[in-house]
Amino acid sequence: MNDIFTFIGLISHNHTFLILAHVVLVAVIVLAIAKFSTSSMQIVPRGVQNVSEVYLNGVVGIGRDVIGEKLSIHYLPLVATIGLFVFVSNMIGIIPGFEAPTSNINVTLALALIVFVYYNYEGVRENGIVKYMKHFLGPVWWLYWLMLPIEIVSHISRIISLSFRLFGNIKGDDLFLAVILMLAPFIAPLAPYALLAFSGLLQAFIFMILTYVYLAGAVLISDDH
Question: What Cα–Cα distance (Å) separates residue 111 from each residue in 12, 65, 77, 150, 179?
Answer without folding.
Answer: 25, 23, 15, 24, 28
